[in-house]
Amino acid sequence: MTVEKLIFYAFASVLILSALAVIGLRHSVKAVLSLVVTFFSAAALWLMTQAEFLAVSLVLVYVGAVLVLFLFVVMMLDVDFAAMKEGFAKTLPFGVAGAVLFMVALYQLYHTDFFKNTTVAPVPENYSNVRALGDVLYTQYFIAFELAAVILLVAMVAAISLCFRGVRQRKVQDVGEQVRVRKEERLKIVRMPAEKRESMQEDAQ
Fold first, then answer.
1. For 101, which DSSP code?
2. Are residues 158 and 105 in the same domain?
């Protein structure tokens, strides 16, 4: 067994164990951190298969944005996921049945002649899938790419406009005015006439 296969099996094992920890841990924050490890392991496997763009996209989009946002939401809301998982035993047989069917489908797919008869085109040494994807994206699908960017921009502007509550009156300090002030202006003593309370008047009566 080569070193590359050992590294592949190591990342695959970490991927499977962390994925099982996501659905098995009762603590929500630990489950989210396990999902982070799952995505990092998947990104490492994609790097080993020379899919650099997918690996970088997975780390930047899911780990860097979605999971961090999800972690903050879970920590702020303090959702009791243990109470939500009380009915897990009822749905466990359906999950096991689905997993068995999935494994049977993978076994049947692996033992077919579809992948054995396919031929892979030779890849040059200086080939970059990121560059190839960029060439296709900015030439053949340029209009669709720009439309997607405009839709995302409209969604961002709409979200900001919905959250905007108007200009608030901010309280700021004028340093120059604070320096120019004199000691007579800092404190003003006001003499006010004394007033008797109603309780004191009743006691006097």
1. H
2. no
22/4 same-domain check: yes
Average confidence score pLDDT of the chain: 80
Torsion of CA 20, 23, 27, 30, to 10 degrees: 50
Domain count, the chain: 3
Task: Say if 30 falls within a structural domain.
Answer: yes
Q: Kindly state the tokens that stand for 191.
A: 């003499």
* Angle in degrees, 0-180, between the axes of helices 28-48 and 3-24, rounded to the nearest 10: 160
Is the same domain home to 113 and 139? no
Close Cβ partners of 156 (under 8 Å, ≥ 6 residues apart): none
pTM as predicted: 0.58
pLDDT-derived band at 16 (thresholds 50, 70, 90) equals very high
Per-residue pLDDT tens digits for 28-58: 778 888 888 998 999 999 988 888 888 888 8
User: Left (φ > 0), alpha (ψ -120 to 50) or beta: where does 166 sit?
Assistant: left
**Residue 201, CA distances (Å) to 192, 193, 194, 198 in order:** 20, 17, 14, 5
Q: DSSP secondary structure string, 129-198? A: HHHHHHHHHTTTTHHHHHHHHHHHHHHHHHHHHHH-----------HHHHHH--HHHH-----------H
pLDDT tens, position by position, 131-145 = 888 888 888 999 999
Domain membership of residue 42 as a residue range? 1-79
